[in-house]
Every structure is written in structure tokens, then in C-alpha cells.
Design a protein that fits this description.
alpha/beta; 2-enoyl-CoA Hydratase, Chain A, domain 1; 4-stranded mixed beta sheet; 18% strand; Enoyl-CoA hydratase family protein; Enoyl-CoA_hydra/iso
Length: 244
């Protein structure tokens, strides 16, 4: 049973994260299913662009702490989105946490409604936003990332747009995205692919240069005593021992 719903309208393929039992957390299974769906969409000549969205009130709760994907698999998914020869558009109407923000960073265009909220919560469970930094650092305001990476604070869609995590925000996300999707449908496929290649060159340089180091950092932190305590505290709905 796949964790990704697929629909199509006028050459736009919509991939919907559908893992309600864990608020679309990035499990090994979800990451694998999304990678497969992206591959099929990329190979389909009838697909002009891809919309990535979600069921429920959460776009993604971040890594599934009970079944996390290996760092290489997560990095591979993010790179796949960046390298895909078709534009990928994120449509967000709910909460996004931790690893889910990496998906937004990898997408070419991202829009959210006022119901959305965002937080890099890794430091609060004893790890760091390592692998997801590959697409985020080249595209997002560095001073803002310093604040939100280090504090784990929650912020809204307007702030996410201000710092470059989102392309746009509005009360009605579909209204925001209507001219975007219309523009993509009016664009030549080869021109879209080559223009995307221009736009993603610097992001792919970050993958080539830093993927190995950041993957090792992620693996080391997830195996640490702090991470074991932080994840236990999260799952048990209590404060970790270091909270003061």
C-alpha cells in the first residue's frame, strides 16, 4: 500500500503525502514511496509539473523517530527533487517540522496558507538539521536560519516567505498557486528543464561538496546519548533532562 496519492489535472501531477497515522512523518517507507512517485512523474511525457501536498493538518512532522530513513535515503530524495527535470511545487496548508522543511527547501516553488506553521525542532531532541541543510542553506536567509535552527522556535507562513523558505503565502493557497500553475502549463517542457538547471546549479554544488560530511554528522547525532534522551522525551511527552 503506497503512502502517496497521485492525481493529475491539465498536465500537473499532484503527489499527496498520505501517512495519517504519524502526521506524514518521513519514515523509510514514505521516503521510498515518494521517490518512486517522483521517478514515475519525471518519466511521464504528459506531466509538465508536480505539486507536492498532504492530507490532514500536517504537511510533515519531520523524521519518523520510530522508523527514520537512512541519511543517504533522505539526501537522495532531496537531491532527486532538486535534479528533477520538471518543476516541483509545494502546496502547504498545515504544520511543517524539521525534516519536512527540507522538502520545502528542495522544491522549486513553495506556497502556504495562513494555517501553516514551521519549526526546526531538531535541537530540541538532541540532533541537528544536517542533511536538510543541503537545499536550505543556499536558498534561505542565513541570519534567520541561525535563529530558527538554534532555538527551535515556531514561525508563521508570512515569516517563512520573508526568509525565503516559501515563495509566497496567503489565506487561500490555491489562489496563490493558480497563476504559478498556469504559467508552468504555458511553458515549453525543454525550456522548463533547462531553466531549472540554471536555478539549481548552486544547490547541487552544495550536495556534491557537503553531502558526505552532513550525512555522517546526522548519523552520529542520531546515535548519541542526547538523541536517545531527546527522542524518548518527545515520545513520552515530557521535557528532556537538559531543559531548564
Amino acid at each position: 500500500m503506497t503512502l502517496i496519492q497521485r492525481t493529475r489535472a491539465r498536465a500537473v501531477e499532484t503527489l499527496t503525502l498520505d501517512s495519517a497515522h504519524n502526521r506524514n512523518a518521513l519514515s523509510a517507507a514514505l521516503v521510498g514511496d515518494l521517490a518512486d512517485a517522483l521517478t514515475r512523474a519525471a518519466e511521464d511525457g504528459e506531466v509538465r509539473a508536480i505539486v507536492l501536498t498532504h492530507t490532514g493538518n500536517t504537511f510533515s512532522a519531520g523524521a519518523d523517530l520510530r522508523d527514520p530513513p537512512p541519511p543517504d535515503a533522505m539526501a537522495g530524495l532531496l537531491r532527486q527533487i532538486v535534479e528533477l527535470p520538471k518543476p516541483v511545487v509545494a502546496r502547504v496548508t498545515g504544520h511543517v517540522r524539521a525534516g519536512g522543511l527540507g522538502l520545502l527547501g528542495a522544491c522549486d516553488i513553495a506556497a502556504a496558507s495562513g494555517a501553516a506553521s514551521f519549526a526546526f525542532t531538531e535541537v530540541r531532541i538532541g540532533v541537528a538539521p544536517a542533511v536538510i541543510s543541503l537545499p536550505l542553506l543556499p536558498r534561505t536567509d542565513p541570519r534567520a536560519l541561525a535563529r530558527y535552527y538554534l532555538t527551535g522556535e515556531r514561525f508563521d507562513a508570512a515569516e517563512a516567505a520573508r526568509i525565503g523558505l516559501l515563495t509566497a503565502a496567503g489565506d487561500d493557497v490555491d489562489e496563490v498557486l493558480a497563476p504559478v500553475l498556469d504559467g508552468l502549463r504555458r511553458s515549453a517542457p525543454q525550456a522548463l528543464a533547462e531553466t531549472k538547471r540554471l536555478l539549481t546549479a548552486k544547490v547541487l554544488e552544495a550536495f556534491d561538496q557537503d553531502k558526505g560530511e552532513l550525512g555522517r554528522l546526522s548519523a552520529r547525532l542520531f546515535a548519541s546519548a542526547d538523541a536517545r534522551e531527546g527522542m524518548s522525551a518527545f515520545l513520552e511527552r515530557r521535557d528532556p533532562t537538559w531543559a531548564v
